[in-house]
Queue: 4 jobs
Job 1
Amino acid sequence: MASKIAGWWAVLRKPSAKYSLLALLSIGFVSGILFWGGFNTGMEATNTLEFCVSCHEMRDNVYQEYKKTIHYSNRTGVRAVCSDCHVPKDWTHKMIRKIQASGEVWGKIVGSIDTKEKFEANRLRLAEHEWARMKSVDSRECRNCHSFDGMDVEKQKTRAAKMHKIAQDEKQTCIDCHKGIAHNKPKGMKEESEDDL
């Protein structure tokens, strides 16, 4: 086995008799650009609302709930789509999240939430998993649009201003209070309370 590896390594290290080093480098450079462009295009295509709701599990369940929220329709016309909340913007964290999402693809293949009943039976588990992910990154995706520094508490309702001040003082993150902001809250939540904003 070691001799085969050594033989392949020797072939790879030998200069090409047919092509110049410049030609090989140029081909490699162009191939790299084409690969990166295709890869990046694929990554961005999977971040669209259309892609996210292309399967009936999402289209018939959480998408219908999301369409009734302020993240979908509001007075300013600014819309947050699935990837704005569920996929990080920076490349490294985006790739990690995409790898994690392969588990969701597996769920699609095996049909773990392919009916409304199965989805509702798993809703709490799925929500808790996403809330834990969001909490672990200090609601990074929420903060792409919302920040304590950008809040004008004078324009907030008294209760919201008070709760945001407490959250800031206690180093809380968005998801600590804003569960159910874009989707229905699951039945049986451990911390279901009137305190959620």
Job 2
Amino acid sequence: MRTPLDSPFSPGSDTVPQVWAGRTAQLSDWRDVLRPRRLAGLPERGRTVLGEAGLGKSSLVRRIAADAADRGDWVTPQLRIPSGADPLKKVAQALLEVARQARLPAARERSIGQLLSRVETVAAAGVSLTLRDQPGPEPYTTLTELLIEIGRAAMKRGDVIALIHIDEMQNIGSEEALSQLLIALGDALTFEEAVEVPGGAVVQRALPIAVYLTGLPEFADMAGARTGATFARRFQTTTLGPIDDDDLTSALQPFIVEGWEIPDGTGGTTRILMEPEARAAIVDLSRGEPFLFQLAGQQAWYAGTGDLINRAQVIAGWEMARSEAAAHVERILARLPRREREFLEEMAALEPKERTLTAIAKSMGLDRGSAAGPTSQRLDSIRGILRRGKPYTFRHRAVEAYLTTQWPEVS
């Protein structure tokens, strides 16, 4: 018997759902590239993961962080930056906790104690230290020094790295705070330590530090405008798109084959199965959106109590979630500048084969296609909502469905 208490679906943000779908490229990048190279002392850029709401940015990095913690790495909590908050304070507080994991306070060097004291001051005052014209190093320099000391401690251990995850980067409104934060993180990532290897040779090794930044697509504009080429050199940016239907189908395969195991309430276990038609309905309703996938699965789970999820339960559950699904897409569209939303609406009004830049621009009342070029470029390369081509196509399938069909209504 299934109940809300044992549902494996988690549509809330910032959670790592038990039913995981896709993002294999990003998970592989962590396991096979970023972590091994950093452990080996090889240079590797930080990672910036951007995308519209609901695409699972935070969940992805939280899963990576959970994997790192399981390996014994030193991991900060997810540092969500509220709008208007001083990011240097939050990062300084988190680094002090990592320093405790690295046992830096136990170090006898007087310089370490003085450094930790300075970081505590940053954790209390943040970027305002700069504005006060205080003597001594600026906050970003202090954070860089602590990151380097943490990296040195990890290097001595030999089998761990320090992972820092900062979320909601687009909320950093202060240019000064953002610049200081990115420079501190970037300087630590590019720092190289001289170490002696067998044979007496001295080589330069990058520190075992990994940094993940997550946020909405506009952060790429913010960082590029305020830090220029430095940000691009030090951070590799990925803009997430919807998940392929094949990946969503694969994620539900355990329900089809052997069933999803849950407690039976009597000390044993039972298994919840799913009809293939129910799986197909969940995948179709989700439109590649991780949030909608979890929402559809959760509501289907709630729609009955038996050990078999059928298509009727998926549809009944979706009826309960329909308004939330619509609101999710409406929030994405509402965030867009007027010109970008108009472009999408006019594109959606055309037949798929007629969606050329010239035709869309004409529908917008523009004289030539090139006048809409910058808008289409942003919707493609920055936001990941459409894909330019001949013809143009929607990459964000939930937005497409909302603008071109009766979705999220179902018959």
Job 3
Amino acid sequence: MQYKSLFKKYKKYQNHYPRHIAIIMDGNRRWAKKKGKICIIGHRAGFEALKKAIKFALLKNLEILTVYAFSRENWNRSLFEVEYLMELFSFLLESEMNNFKKYNIRFKVMGDVKLFNKKLQNIIYQAEKITLNNNGLILNIAANYGGRWDIIQSVKKIINKVQKGVLQINKIKEDTFSQYLSTNELLPVDLVIRTGGEKRISNFLLWQIAYSELYFTDILWPDFDQNVFQDAIDSFKLRERRFGGF
């Protein structure tokens, strides 16, 4: 059974250091509001917090850092805010490209990027292409991403394979399904961190985090630093991971 194989594969990592951490970066707008500033100031501060998180991930030799940057629901925000977020994303990639090279970071985006403007799509493509052979930290950005969307697009791919006769329905297992998700090349998520005080997943990696450890903090994302990051990791190391096994 898949559960048994999963448990055996990752049992040796329980109580040890997480290899793949995912972060729901929440609280930029509330941080700005508390300071009497407009929302884009909070997003700018959140960008600086992300850079610090990446540096800490490198320091701790983390293998994969996945961050929830822009959900599919975020399109419902004001046009001004959305356009600023797109520009900020472009700026992140252009300004940090040298650091990606310097620190051997592989950059990836998971999500439906076709809805982004052509400029941003090209920057994403170039960043992924240039860093493709880097074998250090994988920085995985979830942009225009949603867990339900991820599952649906996986189902569509599987249906296409079945219709072409490449895949038999009775051969579809959990492992098969996982191969068609946006995270198919990545290790399972060990730890999910959510800032901002909310205790929900918000349509993030719904399939992938079935056995992940969850850590919630009231700290707003712009105030997230290495001490909070370390607290989350320390909490993870104290937990006994059972994967539903016993």
Job 4
Amino acid sequence: MAYKPYSNWKKWVVITSLLIAAYSANAEPSPNRVIILGTKHNGNKLVTVKSMLQIIERINPDIILLEFDSSVIKNCSINKVWGAKTAEFLGVWNNPIEYRAARKFKELKDSVCLAPFDIYIPNRKNYISYTQLMEKSHQETLLRVYNEGLLNASDANDYNSYTNINNAFLGLLDSSLVRMNNPNLTDTIQTIIYKEKHAIRRITMNYPALQPFSNWYNAQVDFWDERSEAINKKIWNELNANSNKTILIITGLLHKSDIENFLKRKELASLCTLISLKEALVNPPIADF
């Protein structure tokens, strides 16, 4: 049989391609690039749909994880609700800033996948309204008990320390998204949560005037931990299902430190590289829409 160099060359190309494909299938996945954007859900003068959309556009994510559940977001899109935009324009329906900004970005870049990472909460709007009412009443009663000198010296010091740091944090909620997401704020958020779980919990349990809040407060603290664990698990599932993607996590600011600490675990190093908002805005990926 005559020697056919061209035929042998074709066979070599096929074999090489198969070997490369086999290697790629078994190779370790590239870590996802993850940016966490902490926000104030109802916004302020600086945190608007426009300002958040501008940040999302600069980051140009492949995936946006939002603090909603699967009843709101499915198949990479926010579920369409007839008349929603009109209701928002008229101020009848105050959807969160990130909800509206992510929806607008999806209109610009259809390939982006919007995905939920929160747990399902029955009657979510009623739950939020009730929680806000209880938090306000609880804080007012704490302040009254403190001002009336009913706290012992140790508890008074703990409450005063908590109030100072919490008020400073609340002041930041009136600033821009970039300032809200200063890396130094993580320690502040962790301190607030720690004090609420321990010092404020203890004070609430130990003083008669605060007893009406004891069951509610205990349940809230426990629910926070359960919710954080479930949130982290859903984020892990998204990381595990993707490779070499730019993933933007938009969450209420108080959840940011829990998520950030979770993503910094050594066992997640192969799944994600955590990038600060400042770094992501300085070196944004090239837009493809």
